[in-house]
Design a protein that fits this description.
Elements: H1 16-45, E1 48-53, H2 59-75, E2 81-85, H3 93-97, H4 102-105, E3 107-111, H5 118-131, E4 137-139, H6 147-161, E5 178-183, H7 189-205, E6 211-215, H8 223-232, E7 238-242, H9 249-256, H10 270-285
Parallel strand pairs: 1-2, 1-3, 3-4, 5-6, 5-7
Length: 294
């Protein structure tokens, strides 16, 4: 008989009730332990969530993305959440994907990008093919457009419109009559479709305040052009909403163009953390592994 089968604190053989009670207790504890070990095993086999950030020379970008993923981990402590960058910051996505531990769990790649474009359609699949060609991996959709993303945009705009020293909380009315949704821009037409959809959803969330997308590069209209378009429509109190996950040059340039309030990047907004997990769940629910064209 092994030690694991030995009952501690033996009782007299004549005390049958006590003996049966002790045996039942040990069996119950053993089954509970087996259940806990099985749960741990299932968690260990659950695909890792790999958040794919663009990367930036701005030192605030890595801090911001790290804070966002800390929120994600707090919501799902049972889930392995990792980070990989397309460029400029470590860890690079190729290094994250090369971890042999992922071979036993698989992975879901969740782009921390707000629309479809070259990075989502080509760069991320290429990096997976180069670093881990045999890895069981799924691709989640980019974060936008989505109602939770709009909720995060709305929250950042409220913060930007709140005067210093005022208490946080809902405002009775908006301090602006037009909004530029400042985005990075892309030559991929799908990116403009996604950003335009987010602009319309944000306008609805703001009760009909006009929202015009403006781009920091590669697409039109530019942020200054979007500002002029809103002024031509009679808007005089215009805010700039930051359609960026984290700080960087494009986010800074867009904010600098704002005539008034400029919202912070989405960062670690709680709605964004929930959205990251939502995209992970959607990818797992698809019947097949999705692989965008390389």
């Amino acid at each position: 008989m092994t030690a694991s089968h030995t009952l501690p604190n033996p009782v007299p053989l004549g005390s049958t009730a006590q003996l049966m009670s002790q045996i039942t207790g040990r069996l119950t504890a053993g089954l509970a332990g087996a259940g806990t070990r099985a749960a741990r095993g299932r968690a260990a086999r659950r695909p890792a969530l790999i958040a794919v950030a663009h990367g930036s020379r701005d030192p605030g970008a890595l801090r911001t993305v790290t804070a966002l993923l800390d929120r994600v981990r707090a919501l799902r402590p049972d889930l392995s959440v990792r980070l990989g960058h397309i460029e400029l910051n470590e860890p690079l996505l190729t290094d994250t994907l090369a971890d042999p531990a992922l071979r036993s769990t698989g992975a879901v790649l969740v782009p921390l990008l707000l629309s479809r474009g070259h990075h989502v359609k080509h760069d991320i699949p290429r990096m997976l093919a180069a670093a881990a060609p045999g890895l069981d991996a799924r691709f989640a959709a980019p974060l936008g457009p989505h109602p939770l993303l709009v909720e995060a945009l709305h929250g950042r705009l409220q913060e930007a419109g709140r005067r210093p020293g005022t208490e946080p909380g809902p405002r009775p009315s908006l301090p602006y009559d037009g909004v530029v949704l400042a985005a990075a821009g892309s030559r991929d037409p799908d990116a403009a479709v996604d950003t335009g959809c987010s602009a319309r959803m944000l306008s609805e969330r703001l009760g009909g305040v006009p929202v015009v997308a403006g781009y920091a590069s590669a697409a039109a209209p530019t942020v200054p052009e979007a500002l002029r378009a809103l002024r031509a429509r009679g808007c005089r109190r215009i805010a700039v909403a930051s359609y960026f996950t984290a700080p960087g040059r494009f986010a800074s340039d867009s904010a600098a163009a704002a005539p008034g309030a400029a919202a912070a990047p989405l960062g670690d907004h709680p709605a964004l953390a929930r959205l990251v997990l939502g995209r992970y769940a959607e990818a797992l629910a698809t019947p097949e592994t999705l692989r965008p064209a390389v």
